[in-house]
Amino acid sequence: MAGNGRRGAVRKASKKNVGGSGGQKRGLRGKGPTPKAEDRVYHAAHKRAKEKRRRDSGRHERKGDGTELVVGRNPVVECLHAKVPAAALIVALGTDNDERLQESVRIANSRGIPIREVPRHELDTMTGNTMHQGIGLQIPPYKYASVEDLIDSVAKTGEPGLIVCLDNITDPRNLGAVIRSVAAFGGHGVVIPERRSAAITGVAWRTSAGTAARLPVARATNMVRSLKQFQKAGYQVVGLDAGGDHTLDTYDGTTPVVVVVGSEGKGLSRLVRDTCDTIMSIPMTGWVESLNASVAAGVTLSEFARQRRAKSSQ
């Protein structure tokens, strides 16, 4: 009989080696790089980094109704010196008295700000932690203007409008610095997006050195639509960005103008850039890539103010 098999024998299918020594092993998936210590919530470095961010931002808590509570002795004193509108100064019972606390109480009394003494655990509850140093300043919600009101108020002055719109600016210190520059160089207002933008917080108030109390800040639900409103009202919309059609040296800033400033990292968003009538760059030393948003706004406003003074003196 041909073949080597027995009569009636059936060859069994060979088994695939699925594991064990010599078999095909499943590749182990790596877990990726180890997170930084400050990114691990259980690590002490995470708590230190979180606390540092709170200190750098002025240590404030925002409530659901828009009321803000600035805590910490230095931030509170700075807000009071900047004449930030305040609803009440809150002091925890049993707080150690020092020069900063005394100064806060003195300024609050001179400005007629109510002073409330509360049990320490109540201030703990209000802030969600115990890092308040026994003192807090309640700041009421900022009253934003509308873009329509801003256009109307500028028209009543009879002056060529000078407005700054901020795109992708999320740092309240930048916002406060821009507000201060607009006020210093005769601008008429600032426009910020309603979403994904810095707002008027205690930090912005302090950085503006109180000018936020006198310069209107409007919130735009749609920045592109708001820019088109300004264009319809006779404004030229100028975006600050590299490689523009004009430089600050060649642009006439004596007409009604809206200066649009983007973030140092992202610059202007695409739709906002496409809406601008002109893209203008600031001449700089070649090896410097960009300027901080508030610095760029200040440089531009200073030049436009110079041009306007020169024109009015002719």
From TrEMBL:
One of its GO terms (molecular function) is RNA binding. Residues 43-57 have a biased composition (Basic residues). Residues 1-67 are annotated as: Disordered. The keyword Transcription does not apply. GO terms for biological process: methylation; RNA processing. The keyword Disulfide bond does not apply. GO terms for cellular component: cytosol. Residues 69-145 form the RNA 2-O ribose methyltransferase substrate binding domain. Keywords: Methyltransferase, S-adenosyl-L-methionine, Transferase. Pfam families: SpoU_methylase, SpoU_sub_bind. InterPro entries: Alpha/beta_knot_MTases, Ribosomal_eL30-like_sf, rRNA_MeTrfase_TrmH, SpoU_MeTrfase, SpoU_subst-bd, tRNA_m1G_MTases_N. It comes from the Bacteria. CDD domains: SpoU-like_RlmB. Belongs to the class IV-like SAM-binding methyltransferase superfamily. RNA methyltransferase TrmH family. This is 23S rRNA (Guanosine(2251)-2'-O)-methyltransferase RlmB. The gene is rlmB.
